[in-house]
Amino acid sequence: MWLFNRPPLEQLKALYGFEPTPAWLEHVQKSSVRFTDGGSGSFISADGLVITNHHVAAGALQKLSDAAHNYLRDGFYAKGRSEEVRCLDLELNVLMDIEDVTARIKQAVASGMSADAAFAAHRAAIAGIEKESSERTGLRSEVVTLDRGGAYHLYRYKRYTDVRLVFAPEQQAAFFGGDPDNFEYPRYDFDIALFRVYEAGRPAKIEHYLTWNRTGLKDGELVFVSGHPSSTQRLLTLAELEYERDVLVPKVLADLNQLEVALIAFSARGAENARRARVELFGVQNARKRADGVLAGLLDPALLKAKQTEEDTLQAAAAKTPDGDAAWRQIADAQRIISRQAVRANLLAAYNYHTAFTYPVSSTLLDLARKLYRVPAERARPDGERLAEYRDSARPELELALFSAEPTYDDLEQLQLTHWLTMLATELGPDDPAVQIALGGQSPPARAAQLVQHTRLKDVAFRRQLYAMTPDQIARVDDSYVALVRDLDDASRAVRRSIEQQLDVKERADARIARLRHARDSAQVSPDAAAFTLRLAFGTVKGYEENGQPVAPFTTLAGLYQRSADHDNKVPFDLPPRWAAARTALDLGTPLNFVTTCDIVGGNSGSPTINRDAEFVGIIFDLNIQSLILDYAYTEVQSRSVSVDARAILEALRKVYGADALVQEILTGHLS
Amino acid sequence: MWLFNRPPLEQLKALYGFEPTPAWLEHVQKSSVRFTDGGSGSFISADGLVITNHHVAAGALQKLSDAAHNYLRDGFYAKGRSEEVRCLDLELNVLMDIEDVTARIKQAVASGMSADAAFAAHRAAIAGIEKESSERTGLRSEVVTLDRGGAYHLYRYKRYTDVRLVFAPEQQAAFFGGDPDNFEYPRYDFDIALFRVYEAGRPAKIEHYLTWNRTGLKDGELVFVSGHPSSTQRLLTLAELEYERDVLVPKVLADLNQLEVALIAFSARGAENARRARVELFGVQNARKRADGVLAGLLDPALLKAKQTEEDTLQAAAAKTPDGDAAWRQIADAQRIISRQAVRANLLAAYNYHTAFTYPVSSTLLDLARKLYRVPAERARPDGERLAEYRDSARPELELALFSAEPTYDDLEQLQLTHWLTMLATELGPDDPAVQIALGGQSPPARAAQLVQHTRLKDVAFRRQLYAMTPDQIARVDDSYVALVRDLDDASRAVRRSIEQQLDVKERADARIARLRHARDSAQVSPDAAAFTLRLAFGTVKGYEENGQPVAPFTTLAGLYQRSADHDNKVPFDLPPRWAAARTALDLGTPLNFVTTCDIVGGNSGSPTINRDAEFVGIIFDLNIQSLILDYAYTEVQSRSVSVDARAILEALRKVYGADALVQEILTGHLS
What we know:
Two copies of one chain form a homodimer.
Chain A: E1 2-3, H1 9-16, H2 22-31, E2 32-35, E3 39-43, E4 49-52, H3 54-64, H4 71-74, E5 76-77, E6 85-86, E7 92-100, H5 102-108, H6 115-137, E8 140-146, E9 151-160, E10 162-168, H7 171-174, H8 178-181, E11 193-199, E12 202-203, E13 222-227, H9 238-267, H10 271-298, H11 301-318, H12 326-349, H13 364-379, H14 395-402, H15 410-428, H16 433-439, H17 444-453, H18 460-467, H19 471-475, H20 480-520, E14 535-540, E15 544-546, E16 549-551, E17 554-556, H21 557-566, H22 577-582, E18 591-596, E19 608-610, E20 616-623, E21 641-645, H23 646-655, H24 660-668
Antiparallel strand pairs in A: 1-14, 2-3, 2-7, 3-4, 4-11, 5-10, 6-10, 7-9, 8-9, 10-11, 11-12, 13-14, 13-19, 15-16, 17-18, 18-21, 19-20, 20-21
Helix pairs in contact in A: 5-6, 6-20, 9-10, 9-12, 9-15, 12-15, 12-20, 13-20, 15-16, 15-17
């Protein structure tokens, strides 16, 4: 997961004799698109056409759907531009440039500062840099921490906020095989969706977009993935890794299990329930499966032993420096404090300091209430002293979230709140003052019902009123959710602050370890992925062995029909009617999915897979199950990323969906 | 939940003017049947015909099924006696008499004994009484602790071990509405199954059986339920209740959630997987829903407040005795020790000291391995010093379990083991020596696969070999499961012993509180249900209010068809084909299910509902969701037990299943 401003030139030359030029890198970078709700995509025409995964588009599809139109399940196709429908609060970003601001940030924190003062100075420095940049350039500006605190880069993005839905297949085509096949390979999924970005009411004019490959990808070929991985944890210390194994992942898993069970039961009550819960259930199941795989990996003693060996080597090097192993001790101390408060922070502050494993949110509306309630108080503070999400530079995303017209449902709200209240009461204990406030003297289900009945937060106009209030005004608002977040605000802020301070301590200690690691390793070390920043991965198309059997690099359309037949076309192996009907028309030898050794994690979903000529050859949509431990350690023995083949995309758009105009645009690079 | 030897004569007379005679009580008692795998039933013909629930029969149906015959899903009907098929390791019991042995047990424990000595003396006294009784009478003899240690009664049962399956409907008829309707009312379930007990190869001759009511049950009518509730916790102290709320139930729920998620994912992979996992998934979902409801109830501050008030009153009375509140302090101290070890005991010793909330077992075969491994060592000890399940009086059940020919499946075994190893590692921590033994240096899934590959325990003949071994011989057996339970045996016995000692301390303290409670309450107090002993409940047919709407006491066959139509006949509201076809033939006004105020809990499933004349009017199969807290406190405001109406049973047997011979036997009381 290489940085575009530190590309792995030596490795590419040595291994593949390939030397990407600066122009190649710039073209790929600017053809790559970030979905700000967590995913990747790419431009594939000069007229703003963007391709991503159906599952990246799921949130947008759900928000456009209602009881009468289930675009998420049934798909969507705009036959002409006038039918392209604008998405609710969807924002796409394109990375325009990267600036190293390490020196400016480090300067701000004087040695000898108290933890408190260092934290404040650090936060103010970041806020200042972001604000200055966004005001000067008009670009979305984010300071990103790299090497766990070893470096700070300022990323500037062009924003697209008028994003329209062009095409999505049926969810059953995108997620054929359902939960049983999820994270498995061989797979047979048509996991794509198409959007178009607009500017000033017209399709945006795009300079950098990927041309479609026409010759076909081959086994063993060098490929690249350009996308936005969420984060990896490969440079954690042993103490941090033990925390993930013993506290974080088991707690997250327990939370996800409980929510999944509740959502499945809710969905079974009827078709409309199932539609309402579909996106959340899908997300929860995906996260649960990942947590499951990660926990199994972390419980393998071999992983921790390897980490211990690496740490012994680094500490031997550290012993020769004046600080010795102080960095590791500081991290372990900070981690102990975090461990004690982690569950509390997640539940009470919805504070997801660990982006790879976020707890399920409490409820859609409670999350909004918490964000809204703090607006007046945060606005009154200097920019550099605010919580990160209230900085001036972050205002557009904040407003996008607060004023979303996304539908919410009382019954689903009640389920989420009951779940959250139950986790809160059992994890923190019923005697905790915050729990007593949250429960208000009732059982979790009774309290949840009461909260849902006495709020107006569903109404966007009411949210806009709250947003405009002064601290005094919002303190007097009579609304069940607002009252709840108000009463919990002190406790919520306190635990977040406590964790953030310790993270800050860890970041500075981590930076020292990163320096040792760089000094030791003459080869370049790619930093942990972080904050959905753009990264370039490379690898080859390559099968693997599983239980002694070879697994081929490509699957075909024929395999899809065969797998469905093997399961009597029963859920979740049923073919959507259009696919069943198109069978005889299709060239069944067309490659459908393929695997590569490219190193990806969550957030890479929708990333283009490209060849040496920067042509689009496929689109990433999954990992195999053997890859779930990639968050913590890279291995290419069995770990594989899975893409939809560019050839299947054309074949299906033509013959299953009759979307010839889209095929034309993709092949010519222009709207006709 | 009254004892048959302490019937609530005064209450019945005062409330209903009804005075059951000794003959009435004996008749009902001896018509009642206990399923030793946890359920109830009753005799309904002189030729050994027994009626129970489909879900009580589920284990037996599953054990008779294979990939080609899915009796659990599709049902079964023996058209003649020769088609009645013998069940694997199913044992039915009938309670013949009860003897109060309180004095004999209390005598054995001298005051001033150490906890250790008291525990041993207590255990030896119980074993002695059971052994003497079973040898003298040939009846299954069990000493039961009542009033949490206030009294000890010896229950003697006649055993039936040749039990044959006669009839079962489709699971979809029995569990119509599936998980969404589970614990809900109104309901539309035909949850019955019929067995016949045999002796010496012929249908057993039964003196006491229930005659079938022909006039029809009415709203408001007095009814009784005679069955075998598992246990209730209504006389817990506050300290014990807090433990259930803060430790036991949340831990059980987390375990159940994780297993449910794994079983659902497993089942989704194909029809045969679903068949294999069906009984376990059903059981896990049922238990999870119960734990969910109980947790919500326990988190309601009102429940604990009521307990506090009751405890204050009792303690005020206790203050006037020489011991003061010592009993409560002893219980709280013992509870603290138990709390720290409870999860360890459940996971490592599979020691279910709390019968209302048992953890899922580790795996079917590992459970067998643990039981088998201890046989040689326990056999070498005097009867009174053995673990309870190895006493001579318990040998028949032990052998039934050990040599069961119930099929096991490697893939399901692996799932169960992975689940157990993961819970073990995350709950006890990877550094625990027992966890290191269990994992053997591998991740949970890798270790589970290895264990399953290297065991011969599926083979009943191998189990018989192990059973016959000496301690020295079994110590040298080369089998992955046997080796694992051997290496964990010390740790497993230690934690069980520690918990059992504390339970013993609690039992004696509880006995003192029970005396205070009896002295205070001039009215009789019914003891907590315990150990699936026969109890008599009474109440009336009565609707209730929910969200301000009246809920009628009866549903009808018409309602079943309506509910299916309301859901487009979609899973889980689909009609079995026989039911769809029979619609026009049926009298749709026939009552299908009804609710009463009778006080029941788990274990009562399959209990007959009878009228004053001891006629069969229905069969208990569920509670409504408002009853889940009944384990901890009785209330009749909304709590209702749900029965299948006797009229629907006859109507469906005739017109849906064409089982006229069965109808004839039921109405005449004899095989024709």
